[in-house]
């Protein structure tokens, strides 16, 4: 089941639009983090002060120039020149040409290319992890883990390269046989609107490597606010393709805004479009793709629940809730946002959570001792404050946090809200921030119903020792979420096997 979140990152980036390089003051050039000695490793990834944001076998970009910022201090890192519509047209044409070459490569050899990509990522795992922390704001261990997951997906896809096939089925007609085979979609486009994680990593990379296995070419448009990550990873992939005398447009990149995204959605040459972003924008994308009878895959929206019953092991509940609600500063698609506690354990769990929240180590995300970093943008901070205010208007009580931290960057306090009605509108509205809404429940029937009353349904967790209840939870009258967890958090670091791989 696919669902996801977020407001258009494109508009965030436009606020930082710059004019051409010929009239930029030298003082601004020197303030870029990429020019500071402690960030010299950025250049080892092939990044420069101004980077080309289009790759289709060669690098270019004739669109506007945007600046990406470090959310820990809001200082500019570097700039990326995005795609123009002419760049997009050229990239689609080259992708179709590249597909003709790629489709002739045997699957095991395609798997060998993916293996080389995985090895190249392994060699750069620390630098890429640092870049995720610097540009997105994830703590370092999560940034490195993001890249490791990318590597793991490569390994998974390599194995598939020698297993792809289809069944041979008995025919109802004499002297006939029915054979099923995997055929490519020619061009698959991935749009990542969200900027809270490595734009071409995790589940969307399923499409990159599975597309490779079934002979499809793949193009991507990452989130504008994390354009440097898109460029750095594409450089690694491009080198592998070029070293093997393969067209780079097999895996192309078009950094851009809403105009590029709209063109992708409406383009009949794009056979499958995969979108990760807000539900609002996802609906618009789906309608545009379906209007031309195209194929679309969406991950749009979530409001993850955790349920803890009276027999739950609280030594599991408290750290799990902390990890799921506060990890990545509440900016995961699997972040826990609703915690349902049986009335007999409610007060104790809330008190334990408050003590645990008070011990969270806050700081620069690239510091290995830090467990909690910033929100990705200033706009995310505003959305956090708006959600806290709305929760209080609807009868909620902030028992921990609720404020912006007095320090540089986009830091907010991890927040716990109690006293809301289970069907309060704010509790059903996703806010990409570390806000946990806590509710009391009396019995299994009512809390199962509350779990399912939101429109979103990605991941859910239950904490209990009752095996009968666990199987009822897993059954048709239990959780309606696509991922169901038992005695573990809603979030974790697995490859996207549960996401349709």
TrEMBL record:
SUPFAM superfamilies given in the database record: ALDH-like
The Aldehyde dehydrogenase domain, residue ranges: 64-498
Alphabetical list of InterPro entries matching this protein: Ald_DH/histidinol_DH, Ald_DH_C, Ald_DH_N, Aldehyde_DH_dom, ALDH7A1-like
UniProt signal peptide: none
Annotated GO biological process: lysine catabolic process
Subunit structure: Homotetramer.
Membership in a protein family: Belongs to the aldehyde dehydrogenase family.
Protein name: Aldehyde dehydrogenase 7 family member A1
């Amino acid at each position: 089941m696919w669902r996801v979140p977020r407001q258009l990152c494109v508009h965030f980036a436009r606020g930082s639009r710059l004019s051409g390089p010929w009239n930029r003051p030298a003082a601004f050039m020197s303030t870029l983090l990429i020019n500071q000695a402690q960030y010299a490793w950025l250049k080892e990834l092939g990044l420069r002060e101004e980077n080309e944001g289009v790759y289709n076998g060669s690098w270019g970009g004739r669109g506007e120039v945007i600046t990406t910022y470090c959310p820990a201090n809001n200082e500019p890192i570097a700039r990326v020149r995005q795609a123009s519509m002419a760049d997009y047209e050229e990239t689609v044409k080259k992708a179709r040409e590249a597909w003709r070459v790629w489709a002739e490569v045997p699957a095991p050899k395609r798997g060998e290319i993916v293996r080389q990509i995985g090895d190249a990522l392994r060699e750069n795992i620390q630098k890429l992890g640092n870049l995720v922390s610097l540009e997105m704001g994830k703590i370092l261990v999560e940034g490195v883990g993001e890249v490791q997951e990318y590597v793991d997906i490569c390994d998974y896809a390599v194995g598939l390269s020698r297993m792809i096939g289809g069944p041979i089925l008995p025919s109802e007609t004499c002297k006939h046989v029915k054979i099923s085979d995997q055929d490519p979609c020619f061009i698959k486009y991935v749009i990542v609107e969200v900027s809270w994680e490595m734009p071409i990593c995790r589940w969307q990379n399923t499409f990159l490597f599975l597309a490779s296995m079934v002979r499809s070419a793949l193009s991507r448009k990452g989130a504008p606010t994390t354009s440097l990550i898109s460029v750095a990873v594409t450089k690694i992939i491009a080198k592998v393709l070029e070293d093997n005398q393969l067209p780079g447009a097999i895996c192309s990149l078009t950094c851009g805004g809403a105009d590029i995204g709209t063109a992708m959605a409406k383009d009949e040459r794009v056979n499958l479009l995969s979108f990760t972003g807000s539900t609002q924008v996802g609906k618009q994308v789906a309608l545009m793709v379906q209007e031309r009878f195209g194929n679309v895959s969406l991950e749009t929206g979530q409001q993850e629940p955790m349920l803890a019953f009276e027999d739950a092991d609280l030594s599991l509940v408290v750290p799990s809730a902390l990890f799921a609600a506060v990890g990545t500063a509440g900016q995961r698609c699997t972040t826990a946002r609703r915690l349902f506690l049986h009335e007999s354990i409610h007060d104790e769990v809330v008190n334990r959570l408050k003590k645990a929240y008070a011990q969270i180590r806050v700081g620069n995300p690239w510091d290995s001792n830090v467990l909690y970093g910033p929100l990705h943008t200033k706009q995310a901070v505003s959305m956090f404050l708006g959600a806290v205010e709305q929760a209080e208007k609807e009868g909620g009580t902030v028992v921990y946090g609720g404020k912006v931290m007095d320090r540089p960057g986009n830091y907010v306090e991890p927040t716990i809200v109690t006293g809301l009605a289970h069907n309060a509108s704010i509790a059903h509205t996703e806010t990409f921030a570390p806000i946990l809404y806590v509710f009391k429940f009396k019995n299994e029937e009512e809390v199962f119903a509350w779990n399912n009353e939101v429109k979103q349904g990605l991941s859910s967790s239950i904490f209990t020792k009752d095996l009968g209840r666990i199987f009822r939870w897993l059954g048709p009258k239990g959780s309606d979420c696509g991922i169901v967890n038992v005695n573990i958090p809603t979030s974790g670091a697995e490859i996207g096997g549960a996401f349709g791989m």
